[in-house]
Amino acid sequence: AAGEPWAEPLSRLCPGAGDAAAEERSVLLANRAACHLKDGACRLCVADCSGALELVPFGIKPLLRRAAAYEALERYGLAYVDYKTVLQVDCAVQAAHDGVNRMTKALLEKDGVNWRQKLPPIPTVPVSAQTRWSVPSAGAPGANTPPATAPRGEPGESTAAGTERARTLKEEGNELVKKGNHKKAVEKYSESLQLNQECATYTNRALCYLALKQYKEAVQDCTEALRLDPKNVKALYRRAQALKELKDYKSSIADIKSLLKTEPKNTAALRLLQELNRA
To answer: What does the alpha-carbon distance between residue 67 and residue 112 come to, in Å, rounded to a whole number?
Structure first.
């Protein structure tokens, strides 16, 4: 890529800019990574993003670009971790929500229902990093503080407002389910989950997906619910229902048996187990 207009200045600036601020070099590496990604040079993109993140941890742009490169390299577990990390920094990044959904489907198909057990650990983003990325910094002095152009309020404030809005959206979804409008309810639950990942919202959306015969999505939502609450009876039952429809009888039976450890006399579960044993 020697002929590329960006290659020469960056190759000079990045390695040898000892006096430049770490933040500035991080931005340069992230920008070069974007060029590598565009050219399909995914491994070079990963290397530059990792370099940018070593200099300034939890930058949204290098995380998203590295996730996209991992996705192109079919390293779905690593892509999932980066997309999830972005959502810890800023839960409103739609590209990261979309990426998580794509990776969940890919990993579910590749590794089955226990795909989470094979994931590398997801780093915990410190609160200090959760407020600093409201506007991409160009390495200006004082870039560690959120720019005045994009005030985000106190972290607690926005979280409380988001949680309240999420609850309202979930209740609107519940009302739509009562009316039998599962498709519209899915939209409400999806909006709610973008603001607050709650176990009950996942199991409610899974119920809608079952009604809409979208069984893979139902499995995915129940798996998310069980990550939040490993013994959740509704999540185990609904995932077992979805797995039965997908003809994955072995996994379905395993879920029902887990459920029955918590509720041995659950009649719906016992009935489903009888059906599965006949299947």
So the answer is: 21
| Mutual angle of helices 267-278 and 249-262, in 10-degree steps | 150
Q: How many structural domains is the chain composed of?
A: 3
- Could you tell me if 97 and 104 are in contact, meaning their C-beta atoms sit under 8 angstroms apart? no
Query: Which among 65-74, 103-112, 134-143 has the top mean pLDDT?
Result: 65-74
Tokens 């016992």 label which residue?
270
Digit-coded pLDDT (tens) for 243-259? 999 999 999 999 999 99
> Reduced to 3 DSSP states, what percent helix, strand and coil does the chain have, rounded to the nearest 5?
70, 0, 30
Whether residue 81 sits in one domain with residue 187: no
Residue 126 lies in a domain: no
11 plus 114 within the same structural domain: yes
Token output for 118? 């094979």
H helices present in 179-266, as ranges: 182-195, 199-211, 215-228, 233-245, 249-262
Q: Which of 3, 12, 64, 13 is nearest to 39 (CA)?
A: 3
Range of the domain at 168: 152-197
